[in-house]
Specification:
The complex is a heterodimer. Chain A is mainly alpha-helical. Helix content of chain A is about 70%, strand content about 0%. Chain A is built from 15 helices and no strands. Chain B is α+β, with helices and mostly antiparallel strands. In chain B, about 45% of the residues lie in helices and about 15% in strands. In chain B, helix 3 runs antiparallel to helix 4. The chains are: A mainly alpha, B alpha+beta. The interface between A and B is large, with 64 and 68 residues.
């Protein structure tokens, strides 16, 4: 017998009222204000860091020659990867008829959106002249130039901007019927008008639902290959180069698995406190946490396997540079970070083989934090350890992040958290209409 | 009661199966201009109302094809015609390198067609609709299921239609002012 997906005795009314009340009627918990204050403070740190960057240039960061990519690209890859779990939950699990996704998809999609927003900042900040970022897009310009369409960096622009757009569309389409529910439940005329305008007059007609279901399902089908393509293209930024440690055919699947791994870790990191804060245990049940833990474990194993294959391929190639890279990574200047990332990404998730661990929210929370840290370190090492020692010892160098690097990284976390807190405050964080479907299923009807 | 002209008469139900049964009964009676309202997509409701299949798939396919052709065409135009540049001896029309951008634009256009197509096919945004004149209708987005027989149906007659809805044992029957 599997544990139920919803708490006992939930009706259509109860589901609607509970989720709507978090936004419309319940007092905002003090913890929300504390978290909002903290994250808004970090947003200010980000503003200062970015302003200084614009004023003084990328020299305030630790980047140098040979390590020109540093924190910015690490953060970019990390944030894009985090977004992937949201799309996986909302699109792929929808196609696979995994009904447990219904109470976490909205939240995970919002997470995707904000993670991609944070990710999108970094390549632009990393440009020496960020104000001309639009040169990356193809438009008939007065210089009569075009982007180099054979370059993975240009593919990346298309992949990430398409991903951001499609994620937003998917999220908005999912919200549409719920915005109508908010409109109908709101008491204040102003609030009613606002939700009404966003809901566009949705009235839940059978004709609406018919087009809606068709569009929603096909969108899920479109988002599924898209999400796989995005981190594959990101990985091609690396593997299409000649650099040892980057030039590898394993990169696309390795990056996609890592993305889903870190994304599920972030979903858990965010869901567990929110669920406790708003008393949503009837909606995000132990079974949801357990399922997510299982996916995280599976992805962690995949990532561990990729580490092994990468090392084996390097050794088996007999190539002097590949072997030097392996040695450098395991015993060189960044070795402690490497072993820490192996411990976080491969070691920590092994606890999840134990059922008790998968059902213990705060242990899961701790593991998810470890995975978040580990995956950031993994990306950091891919970039920094490989760049710092290329083919010629005379051009070797060491990278260390400056305080501005850290300010931008933690500032982006603040931005992410702040956006999420705003989302939780003004929009239904659980999909109401899909939860009603769960109620209908539980009643054996329709 | 309310004055004419009416938009229609509406019956309220408490469970999705009741709504589907009512819609099927109304269709069997010969009503065509009617609509059903539910707080979530109800399986079999479209069939009970006799709705045609959604046109969404063909619209989205159109978007995808436009995106694919446009995406490849853009790259072909830029790299072969407008700004030909020899990159490592590759042919100007180096199609394998054009696959990722073509793919992304295919998805992008299909998704845009899906969302805007759905919104437009549903006649949204719609600032006013008569069904909202029924106070109980706010429950259509919460917990209740509604069937509305519309006055433009040739079979529609206020008293007769009300009586017919009454036979379906609804929770309530309401006149919908236009």
């Amino acid at each position: 017998m599997q544990a139920p997906l919803l708490g006992p005795g939930l009706t259509y009314e109860a589901v609607t009222d509970k989720i709507v009340s978090i936004v419309l009627t319940r007092r905002t918990p003090a913890a929300w204000f504390a978290a909002a204050a903290l994250s808004a403070g970090l947003v200010l740190v980000l503003l200062v860091a970015v302003t200084t960057l614009f004023a003084r240039g990328v020299g305030i960061w630790g980047i140098n020659m040979p390590v020109a990519w540093g924190f910015a690209i690490t953060n970019f890859v990390w944030w894009v990867g985090i977004g992937h779990a949201g799309t996986l939950i909302s699109a792929i699990l929808l196609l696979l008829h995994q009904k447990w996704r219904n109470s976490i998809n909205r939240f995970a999609e919002a997470m995707t959106l904000f993670a991609v927003a944070c990710a999108g900042l970094f390549p632009i900040l990393h440009l020496g002249r960020p104000w001309v970022f639009y040169w990356l897009f193809p438009y008939p310009d007065t210089m009569r130039l075009w982007p180099q369409f054979r370059s993975p960096l240009v593919w990346d622009v298309f992949a990430v901007s398409t991903y951001a757009t499609v994620s937003f569309l998917f999220w908005f389409v999912g919200l549409l019927p719920d915005l109508a529910a908010m409109r109908d439940q709101a008491r204040s005329p102003l609030v009613k008008t606002l939700y009404g305008a966003l809901g566009m007059g949705w009235r839940g007609s059978a004709r609406h639902w018919r087009n809606y279901e068709s569009a929603y399902l096909i969108l899920a089908g479109l988002a599924t290959p898209l999400v796989i393509s995005v981190h594959s293209v990101v990985s091609l930024d690396f593997s299409a180069t000649q650099l040892t440690g980057w030039h590898s055919t394993i990169f696309p699947p390795f990056f996609v698995a890592g993305a889903i791994f870190s994304g599920f870790a972030m979903v858990l990191t965010l869901t567990i406190p929110l669920r406790a804060l708003y008393g949503l245990e009837d909606y995000i049940t132990a079974r949801h946490l357990e399922n997510m833990a299982k996916i995280m474990l599976a992805m962690g194993l995949f990532v561990g396997y990729s580490y092994l294959v990468e090392a084996f391929t390097g050794w088996y190639s007999g190539d002097v540079f590949e072997i030097a890279l392996l040695r450098n990574r395991s015993f060189g200047p960044y070795a402690s970070l490497y072993w820490l990332s192996v411990l976080c990404n491969v070691g920590a998730p092994q606890v999840l083989w134990v059922e008790r661990a998968r059902r213990s929210p705060w242990l899961l929370f701790a593991i998810s934090i470890a995975v978040n840290v580990g995956m950031w370190l993994e990306r950091y090492l891919i970039i920094v350890a490989s760049l710092s020692r290329d083919f010629l010892p005379s051009s070797w160098g060491i990278f260390r992040g400056t305080r501005w690097d850290y300010a931008t990284l933690f500032g982006s976390m603040g931005l992410f958290l702040f956006l999420l807190l705003l989302f939780v405050r003004v929009l239904p964080m659980i999909s109401i209409f899909e939860t009603r479907q769960l109620v209908a299923d539980a009643e054996g009807g329709s | 009661m309310s004055k004419l002209p009416l938009y229609g008469v509406m019956a309220e139900f408490a469970a999705p199966e009741r709504l589907v049964a009512a819609a099927a009964a109304a269709r069997a009676r010969g009503y065509r201009a009617m609509d059903a309202y539910a707080p979530f997509p109800v399986e079999g409701l479209g069939e009970a109302l006799g709705l045609p299949p959604s046109r969404m798939p063909s619209i989205i396919l159109l978007g995808g094809v436009a995106g694919a052709l446009g995406g490849y065409g853009l790259q072909y135009w830029a790299m072969v015609a407008s700004y030909p540049i020899n990159t490592g001896g590759r042919p100007l029309n180096s199609w394998p390198a054009f696959v990722p951008v073509t793919f992304e634009l295919t998805i992008l256009c299909a998704a845009l067609f899906a969302v805007f197509g759905m919104i437009l096919l549903n006649g949204l945004p719609m600032p006013y609709h008569p069904v909202f004149n029924v106070p109980r209708f706010s429950l259509a987005s919460r917990s209740r299921f509604f069937l509305c027989l519309e006055a433009r149906d040739p079979l529609f007659q206020v008293e007769e239609s009300r009586r017919f809805l009454g036979e379906l044992a609804p929770e309530g029957i309401y006149d919908v002012e236009a």
